[in-house]
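Subject: mismatched residue count in predicted assembly?

I count 544 residues in my input, but I want to confirm that the predicted structure covers every chain. Input:
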Amino acid sequence: MQPIEALLLEPVGCLAEFPSAPFHEIAVRLFGRKRKTSSSASRTYWHLLNLIDDMDTPFDEEKKSIAEALEVEAVDAANIYEDVVPALAELKSMGTRLFVASSLSRRAVSRFVERNSLGDFLSGVCARDDAGGVKSAPLVNVLGGACLPREKTMFLTDTMEGIKIARSVGVHPILMMNDPDEAQRLAMHNPAGGIISLHEMPDFLRLIAAQNQRS
Amino acid sequence: MKKVSIYRPTTVDEAIQILSQHGASASVYAGGTDLLVRLKNRLEQAPSYLVDIKKIDHLRYIKEDAQGGVEIGAATKLAELADSRLLQEKYPMVVEAIGKISSPELRNASTLGGDLLQEVWCQYLRGGYSCWRNGGYLCYGAIGDNSYYHSAMGGRLCYAVYPGDAATALIPFDARAKLATPQGVKELSIEQMVPGDMLVDGKIQSHVVRYNEILTSVVIPPPKPGVRASFEKLRPRGVWDFAMASLGISLQLRDKTIEDSRVVFGGISGKPYRETTVEAFLKGKTLNTDLGEQAVSVALAGAAPLKYNATKIDMAKGLLASGLARLNT
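Triage response: the counts match. Full output below for your records.
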């Protein structure tokens, strides 16, 4: 792996523990889904993203407003992982460029960044409204907008879909191993790496840099 | 087995020169009980060049030094340590610990240096998984079966436990290591030498010995007056196995009052885990039958067990209680 210059971060599941209920509620109210897909917020969120991605036409204003309100509700109930702020500070001090590349709405992402005082660490923020789509769209938007070399960029994810979209856009999918059983399953999908906690990321990047120096 | 080239230098300087020439693709070869297994299992991380140090004089000895301590050559076999009258007389706890390392057959081959600097025995690494120590970027132990070979005290990318027993037994005596380096002799404590998962020369390893350095000897300072020491080890089977948890403890006593102590747990962390909280707690206390229970109550507060290994912490605490009880008899 080449030395890493940038990290793309999806807040849901990688930066904070989100509740799954608001994402499920969006699926119920806007897509008529009945059955709850999972107790995992990440899985529920990515299931919702699949539904959004399959839409023929974008949300109308009313639906957009409902989705945004529920996402903001999710952000307000989310608990940022305690290691996130020190890890981001260390990564920034190492010269790593940090981007939120999220499929949440702009309102929700802004709220998340502001509520957790993350703005100073970030080189950029891209939400689905900015990218004009979900899943891979925010990643592609950030990569293009910031001229990031894909082979020197990581995307942190805790879902199979996240691993797939990272691969599809040419960045390194790094598994956030929040739950050991789930992580064991996801490790079979060949992520480029995996961490238990964001505080390990600085050492991860140092190791890669040292390996490159050695070779 | 992975194909290798073997060098047989006759001096330490020559060995260092060869190691420097090949960088991280070379490794010191002495007893081979760890290294040859990694080669046999064709691990990505296994070296391509072996520098056999067995022909080098002055690396295999046990002798008393001028201060009344003992210096041990790094290539000394564990069996020779276990049979040493000098060690038995001065540090019976170390002899007891060495006698509990693996099996008699392996102790005939394994060296002190090899035990101190051995690679971790995580089943995922040894099984060839592409983990942090084997060319990959993920710890399978952290998310898989971590009941035995993995840390219950947190980790740094790799969550495997440091497997050696010798360090756990030597740290309570403030033993020191001497390394031959291209710049000359470097000396550091055993505790400093095996600080747990470190990024050294682009690799994750349990010790800080660089690719072109050789551990040449271990020096144990003279026993302090009034010192009592004990080594305890729990393992799934009576022989062969690595520690589920172990304890090296020394108490410096004046009558029954503890003036100083060293409390070191093995088998529960990525390093020999020195429990300084317990050491501070024990200072000035009277060694009696209640002390074990009290010490256990303050021990290992920083434990961070993985899914299947919380029992290691219970075992370690149990060893602390039994170790103190043993020293009270």
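The interface with chain A takes residues 23-24, 132, 136-140, 142-144, 155-157, 159, 199, 201-202, 204, 306-307 of chain B (CB under 8 Å). Marking this ticket as 'not a bug'.
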